[in-house]
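Support request from a user on the community tier.

User writes: "When I paste my structure tokens into the form, the page sometimes reloads and wipes my input. The last time it worked, I copied everything first. Here is what I submitted, just in case something in the input itself triggers the reload:"
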């Protein structure tokens, strides 16, 4: 009987040792899987960012503003038809010299 108890202890010890070994191996596999998952997440984020950047570039390229040459030409044609353009605030006719006279016999007016 004593051998049976010792045998049970040995078998129990072996089973416990196997369970510990098996648990360590499982932890290592879980850790490796976690690292692989983190790497996959990082890669997915990088890929998503690159795709978003490419989409922005394509969107900007599609919406590129073009010069409206016809509108500029029509404005120039309208200005040419209306006469010479003046750069003065009073228009292209200038100031009427009679408006400058103060009227009276002073040193300032004539």
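"...and here is what came back when it finally went through:"
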């Amino acid at each position: 009987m004593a051998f049976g108890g010792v045998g049970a202890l040995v078998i129990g010890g072996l089973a416990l040792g196997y369970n510990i070994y098996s648990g360590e191996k499982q932890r290592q596999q879980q850790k490796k899987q976690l690292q692989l998952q983190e790497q996959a997440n990082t890669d997915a984020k990088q890929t998503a960012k690159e795709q978003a950047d490419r989409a922005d570039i394509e969107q900007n390229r599609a919406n590129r503003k073009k010069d409206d040459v016809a509108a500029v030409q029509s404005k120039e044609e309208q200005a040419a038809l209306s006469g010479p353009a003046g750069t003065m605030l009073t228009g292209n006719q200038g100031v009427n010299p009679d408006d400058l006279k103060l009227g009276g016999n002073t040193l300032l007016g004539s």
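Agent notes: The reload is a front-end session timeout and is unrelated to the input. Residues 3 and 9 are 10 Å apart (CA to CA). The chain has a mean pLDDT of 75. Escalated to web team.
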